[in-house]
Write a structure and sequence with these properties.
The chain has 492 residues and is α+β, with helices and mostly antiparallel strands. The chain contains 18 helices and 23 strands. It folds into 2 domains: 252 residues, Glutamine Phosphoribosylpyrophosphate, subunit 1, domain 1 (4-Layer Sandwich); 179 residues, 3-Layer(aba) Sandwich (Rossmann fold), CATH 3.40.50.2020. The longest helix has 15 residues. The N terminus and C terminus are likely disordered.
Length: 492
């Protein structure tokens, strides 16, 4: 399963705060036809570090064979200078991956790209997303004697690609993509080419860039293109497979355009993506500004200052301040050297990690009526701690405003939202949540208001975590907790 991230919206790519409750998918990058492919891949992975901070890996091709290196930790941990220098001679084509896993599935066997040898030779695969039918496929393959090393749904895709009856198809990759249900952005590396595929609903973002020398880059977000001086060409379209080889860039569709309605994950705009990125055709920073302005129109209140929960809600708070005319200020300070709270599997340790890196600036909030802007609230436990810290620092009033609606349903497409019973907005009124958080007032942006802030039609976005209307019909809903049986069987 692919999830992740503690925080995508860190404007400076530094430590991120609002997010032991929210984890999501991963980040992928591919570099084709560049003499510095490994170095550029590492740089691009640094730019995507917000999408996955548990493991990292790169697979490199020289046109004849593929070599790979993966490890646990940040990109800088897995690819220190000496390792990076060692890999510079491996080839001019590479794919990279940064990953976040849920508690219990933190294991090197799940690190990517996954590099294997099969009947046709070598292949490496990197995946961003979550397959809702992964368990069903895995059960089927295990029943036929297939052996799995880890718990990742990416490994299931490897088995599909290597299946003899699939290999015999005229287009194996397209055939396999049609078997996959859920969200996926895939990068497949063979010795001679890179292939990229995006699910037919375009749930997760994936873009194409070009280098001045004619080489190409494919990445989860455009911020990865910026850091390596590549020019944005376009997005990989939903249902599209892009091939990059010695003859250039080619495209085909495994699902014809227009046959499936898009379901872009608007949480990419709310929370995951870097503010500098272009996602689903528009700049993330501008979308978040618009959400903040809309929130101010819907939920105005008399106050002295507007402060964001750093760093995720900074853009929305700026928009709220602009629309309301209430001064924007910095109410929290962040330690960029504290541990990352999202990697802690237990809530008490998460709470301690948040306290270590988030401090209230007493002189800013003391005696003030404070509007706090948050991007979202999931469990509410860490939000409660932040509000308590504000109260202890002397805030006279605390009015929490949230730039997304109440999250009442789990996600099955790559966001590690908890089960319904753990979601604070499930079966609780706004007033009850405000009481739990210890604040004077609470207001969420409306679903309609949030959707009015993006450029595409409202029905082109997935909003299942708020509305409960899932765009993909699932016979057997699979969450991260059903991975437990594999953990017990494989790793205990």
């Amino acid at each position: 399963m692919h999830e992740h991230s503690d925080q995508s919206a860190a404007a400076d790519h530094g430590v991120v705060i609002s997010g032991p409750d929210k984890k999501e998918n991963c980040g992928v990058v591919g570099i084709y036809g560049h003499p510095n492919a490994t170095d550029l891949c590492v740089l691009a992975m640094h730019a995507l570090q917000h999408r996955g901070q548990e493991s990292a890996g790169i697979a490199v091709s020289n046109g004849e064979d593929i070599r790979g290196h993966v490890g646990m930790g940040l990109v800088s941990d897995v690819f220190p200078k000496e390792q990076q220098q060692k890999m510079t001679t491996w080839g001019d084509t590479a794919i990279g991956h940064v990953r976040y896993s849920t508690a219990g599935s933190s294991n090197i066997a799940n690190a990517q790209p996954m590099l294997v040898e099969y009947s046709l030779g070598q292949m490496a695969l990197a995946h961003n997303g979550n397959l809702v039918n992964a368990m069903l496929l895995r059960d089927e393959y295990e029943a036929h004697g297939h052996i799995f090393k880890g718990t990742s749904d990416t490994e299931v895709i490897i088995h599909l690609l290597a299946k003899p009856t699939h290999i015999s198809k005229p287009d194996t990759f397209a055939h396999v993509c049609r078997h996959l249900q859920g969200s996926f952005c895939l990068l497949l590396l063979t010795p001679e080419k890179i292939e990229a595929a995006r699910d037919a609903r375009g749930i997760r973002p994936l873009c194409i860039g070009r280098f001045a020398n004619g080489g190409y880059i494919i990445a989860s977000e455009t911020c990865a293109l910026d850091i390596v001086d590549a020019e944005l060409v376009r997005e990989v379209e939903p249902g599209e497979i892009v091939t990059i080889d010695k003859n250039g860039l080619h495209s085909r569709y495994y699902e014809q355009p227009g046959t499936v309605k898009p379901a872009h994950c608007i949480f990419e705009q709310v929370y995951f993506a870097n503010p500098s990125s272009m996602v689903f055709g528009e700049n993330v920073h501008n979308v978040r500004l618009a959400m903040g302005r809309q929130l101010a129109r819907e939920a105005g209140v008399d106050a002295d200052i507007v402060v964001p929960v750093p760093n995720c809600a900074t853009c929305a708070a700026q928009g709220y301040a602009q629309e309301s005319g209430i001064p924007y200020d910095r109410g929290f300070t962040v330690s960029h050297y504290a541990g990352r709270s999202f990697i802690e599997p237990e809530q008490p340790m998460r709470d301690l990690a948040v306290k270590m890196k988030l401090n209230v600036i007493r002189e800013v909030v003391e005696g003030k009526r404070v509007i706090v802007i948050e991007d979202s609230i999931v469990r509410g436990t860490t939000t409660r701690g932040k509000m308590s810290a504000l109260r202890r620092a002397g805030a006279k009033e605390i009015h929490l405003r949230v730039a997304s609606p109440p999250i009442k349903n789990p996600c099955f497409y790559g966001i590690d939202f908890p089960s319904k019973k753990e979601l604070i907005a499930n079966e609780r009124s706004v007033e009850e949540i405000a009481k739990y958080l210890g604040i004077d007032s609470l207001h969420y942006i409306s679903l309609e208001g949030m959707l009015s802030c993006v450029s595409k039609p409202a029905d082109h976005y997935c909003n299942a975590c708020w509305s409960g209307k899932y765009p993909i019909s699932v016979d057997e809903i699979v969450t991260r907790y059903s991975q437990d049986r594999f953990q017990k069987k494989l790793f205990e």
